[in-house]
Amino acid sequence: xxxxRDLLRVKEPHVSLxxxxxxxxxxxxxxxxxxxxxxxxxxxxxxxxxxxxxxxxSLLTQEHTNRIQEVKExxxxxxxxxxxxHDVVSHCNHVTGCYQELLAELxxxxxxxxxxxxxxxxxxxxxxxxxxxxLQFVPTNLHTQRMEVTSPDSVWYDVITxxxxxxxxxxxxxxxxKKLLRKHTNLRESTALQSHTATKELLTRMAQLQPLVxxxxxxxxxxxxxxNAARLRQVLGSLTEQTEQFVHALKEELVKCALLEIHNQCxxxxxxxxxxxxxxxxxxxxxxxxxxxxxxxxxxxxxxxxRVWVNVGKSINCIVAMVDRLQQQEEQTVMSPxxxxxxxxxxxxxxxxxxxxxxxxQVAMTFVVLQEAVDVTVAQGPAHIxxxxxxxxxxxxxxxxxxVMLKLYRGLEDPDFLRQLHxxxxxxxxxxLLSTHGDEIGMLEDMEVGVADLKRVVFTITEAKTEQPDxxxxxxxxxxxxxxxxxxxxxxxSLPQExxxxxxxxxxxxxxxxxINQHQSYAERFGDCSLQERINQQSCERLKAxxxxxxxxxxxxxxxxxxxxxxxxxxxxxxxxxxLWIAAKVCRKVxxxxxxxxxxxxxRTAMSVTLEQCALLRERHTLSQQxxxxxxxxxxxxxxxxxxxxxxxxxxxxxxxxxxxSVWPPKPPDGIFTQWPFSx
Length: 680
Description:
The protein is α/β, with parallel strands linked by helices. 53% of the residues lie in helices and 12% in strands. The strands form 3 sheets. A 10-stranded mixed β-sheet has the order 1-2-3-4-12-7-11-8-10-9, sandwiched between helices. Strands 5-6 form a two-stranded antiparallel sheet. The two termini are 25 Å apart. This is Type II inositol 3,4-bisphosphate 4-phosphatase-like. InterPro entries: INPP4.
């Protein structure tokens, strides 16, 4: 009655929390020195298949709701900008409605299949459901494939297997994300216009400082009438300090870049018109007549904004100089009432300069807020493309979080690995077996974008509130996608101080693809393999960059993989699976996360994983060469005990098919397995 899950709770208390519906098989193989290797295969599902997509949908819904609120708070705008705002609001309302519906359906689905996560019997999306609209954000066949080798110490090798992250619901008639984004996207490359946080901070700072400067200026005039020299100096000092802070805030390069972009759009749109989603036809530029009186000079004066904030500084300097000069002319402590007459025009000039600066900065920041909203929404193309990208990202995210958590739990007692986490980050190596033919081209284009988007994901380790299972599952927060991994207090206290302080752990994703089926043979003879070649070449460069960073920052660890780096350049030849082998070796050397995919994570994935497991037994545990093929055959075709109440032995390959297609109990296919030692 002692189940696999009970055994895991004893041996690996952290790992057991994120795994469910485990099936296991034990083997015994001979080594080259005639010893015995004890090998246990364990395949598990994970509740993360559904919990992370639900969290992501909640975050995306909140993000679009916040964007609607932000653009609505911009107040009265010119017709062009009001039209842009209406476009953004319409887009965000549509996306929010879709995601709320998907989230509600996922909630119903998960309550149906596992009302209690700790007792979940099945929590994955089968390949037959990969086109289901309501399961669009859920990864297909997400499983952990783990191999434990005891000889005599216990060593674990983990691979995350799942169907290639792709949007099967929208299908691939018009290609995948890479092609669709290239067609529809017109995003600006200027990094100055991509800092939403800096925009909000600047607007907040100006809103705080402008009334302070104006209030202190009025107080200065009032004190000048009191003829109190000490009090005058005190108020003047406060006014000078607040004005200097105001000038410092205005030096933000973001404002200057935004004003330049406004000028460029005025020139570009001077003779163009645009119909917004509210039916408004606009024929003028984004800034309209508000900040430059309708002038559209062909050349932009780069120093114009600098002069604006410099004038504010010069105005306060004139006030300080005037006070100093007037006080020096007075020989007695009682001041002349003429000081007010001298200060009043200078204070008026200061206020005028501040108003001008605030006005230009608000115009610039309004443009940034709207332009960012447009770039993130409308300018990315139709809403279905944004939803496709989010769905693909969700599938990739669930898989990588599962892999990183397994890697973290296995390395909690490894100080070198923990140091690597907060120093360099963790490598996530995606191995894809998709062909570059037919629909799988679109799948690969989806996967390429989804894996690349994982660069926005970071991890942080937190102290769990309790040791209840729900409190130890990861949570997703923030628009920059911070995954919080809670650990029990006792475990958390043993971590390095950097990790306890909440240092963010970055993820470096790389994707290598080699098609291996008959469709790839056709593509290599008569089709185009440039997509695969480009992906592999770019990933080689990124993998090298990660390894070089690791070598530079942690020289002791870097020595382990230096000999492999020289094999990284991709050789152009048919079905060059050597690329996958080298990438996998480097990944394991640098404590990375291994993820393997094909269309549905069944046949090709199973063949790849079993071959990799036997290769690891041969290379790291001296599995006898004469027993290599035998071990591979056993892992692919051996008997397997069913996870339910059936005691019949099943060929493993057929069991994989049954599990991944939710067919249980299995029925013997016609024409195969005709001589089974039992009746059905």
